[in-house]
Amino acid sequence: MSGRGGRATLIAVAVVLAWLVIGGVAGPYAGRLSEVSTNDNAAFLPTDAEATRAQDLAGEFVDRQTIPALVVYERPSGITEADRQRVSADAARFAQVPGVVAPLPPPIPSEDGQALQIVVPVDDAEGEEIGTVVEQLRDITGGDRDGLTVDVSGPAGLLADLIKVFSAIDGPLLLVTLVVVLIILLVVYRSPVLWIFPLLAAGMSYALASVFVYLLADADVVKLNGQAQGILTVLVFGAGTDYALLLIARYREELHRHDRPWAAMRTAWKGAAPAIIASGGTVIVSLLCLLLSSLNSNRALGPVAAIGIGATLLVMLTFLPALLVLGGRWAFWPRRPREDQADPRAEHGIWSRIAGFVARHARPIWLSTAVVLAVLTLGLTQLGATTLGQSDLFTQRTDSVDGEEVIARHYPAGTGSPATIFTTEQTARQVTQVAQGVPGVADVRPLSTGPQTGPPDPSATPKVVDGRVQLEATLADPPDSDGAERTLRELRVAVHQVPGADAVVGGFTAINVDTSDAAKRDQNVIIPVVLVVIAVILALLLRALLAPVLLIATVLLSFGATLGLCAILFRHVFDFPGVDSSFPLFAFVFLVALGIDYNIFLMSRVREESVKRGTRAGVLAGLAVTGGVITSAGIVLAATFSALAVLPLVVLVELGTAVAIGVLIDTIIVRSLLVPALAYDIGPKIWWPGRLSRANGEREARDAG
């Protein structure tokens, strides 16, 4: 025994040292992900989207692609001569900023005389450095002065504010996530030592995932954006801590039955690893289904998050067990488990009592919990998926939001961010007339030849490139509003009907419209595929067909209840205007994939116990020994996703809230009451058509006889 124990210790030491070396190499990449992150919405569109084709055509009409920053000056009492001089001086300085494409068009006065607006074209090739360019513009304006307010808005201003928000991912979000996990681990383990092991393993998982994501993004294999980066952080720490809790709980059980830590870990690993691998594999496969998305942003999130889960599985099944073996029983101090051959259920008194309650009231429990969840799904009627407007995107005021509101007060709200129409030279006049007749279109003018030193002149000679001309249609509504999107759709219908025009409509609003349409298509394609994949994995794991169908039904019910409750909270508590078009799909993938995790944790143990005890006794034993760890894991995952709220973006706050609520519903209601009660009530038939169904049926029939 001592020789075998010595070899096991040496192996554990070697594994730990190897991982520490890997961590030393990979660690720095965790702080460098922002270097390879991009947040350009247009880059995430499908290549066949009309807005993408318009963007390609726009590149032929200019020497350099630009994204406009709109600098707007407002004085409610009327713009003064001193204000005009200040604006002219600012414009001259704007033209000198690296990244700004000069010459700038002259300032545009509002009809009411209360505002001046400068359109500052920023070179699109600046990429993430657009944020730096916009900050320099804001520094030049110097902010509000003597009653004159100044804001830098427009697409470039919005992008700069988004970049600033996502810069918090490397620091504050990671710190908040670490603190949340640390506090929960201290509460769960009540040990000043044990929390170190899962937290160290989770940090190693994040470092390993970061190096792979960095290299793939740097090689342009995947597109990393701030949203995917934030989700990667909370997912790795949340899921990693979940897997650690499951392994440690099983290890603690086995320490009561084995005198040597390495022997206890060997048995614990054999018992817990299949469930952990199946759980992680389910999440990975579900995330990879996002590769079926037509949006590049969704296709990027799938592999990025899947890499995070894959790295987490590898670390939690190698590095963590080695650490625990080296830690031995003292790692659990002051509640060190002794080798006393105690029944695992003895340490879970409260869950043994819950199991007894389930046994006595199985049918009323699953019926009542199902009804409660079904009632919550009624809240879905208040969930309206839309494209959030610029003023609705942030949870706090930003310069770009303030500027958008000023522009809307004094100008046609689409000024500076027009819809672009590309058509043939022969049909340009007819297309212009048709476009001007669309309600919500304020003005249509051609892009003319010669240097653009002012607004488009309707009588100027249009610029012709390969037989096409570019028209600029200014919309009456803000470019990211529902009104602008309705106008854009009507505009497309109108110009597409002009014979021989071969019209293509693009621009900022068109990007939002095409993104929303692609998101709806993705939901209809990806959600059924994810359900089929999960059903197959559950059927293979549980070697049954009825159990997987019922488990998926409970997860779908939980998902519907979560979205219904969230719809009520978002509208009546958080006062959000709606949810982003990508929200339902992201919420589904994460809630269903992670919800199935807890089904796997519970039912794999129930099946293991059913083989030894019979189905109904196995359900109660499985609930008793996994109830505590599953609840703890759910709380950890809910808390880590709640950390997304530190980023002041409505879409991430909504996603974090939905996952947190959904996971808590899964762990407290579905996994603790609904599923055990349903499985207990059905009995051995839950394993139909597997052999366990027949064997346990005969056993329970004999026991009843």
From TrEMBL:
Compartments, as annotated in UniProt: Cell membrane
Residue intervals of the SSD domain: 231-326, 552-680
Entry-linked PROSITE patterns: SSD (PS50156)
Keyword Signal: no
Membrane topology: Multi-pass membrane protein
Keyword DNA damage recorded: no
Pfam families: MMPL
InterPro entries: MMPL_dom, Mycobact_MmpL, SSD
Ranges that cross the membrane: 171-189, 196-217, 229-251, 272-293, 305-326, 365-385, 525-542, 549-570, 582-602, 614-639, 645-665
Keywords: Cell membrane, Membrane, Transmembrane, Transmembrane helix
UniProt record similarity statement: Belongs to the resistance-nodulation-cell division (RND) (TC 2.A.6) family. MmpL subfamily.
Listed name of the protein: MMPL family transporter
Organism classification: Bacteria, Bacillati, Actinomycetota, Actinomycetes, Micromonosporales
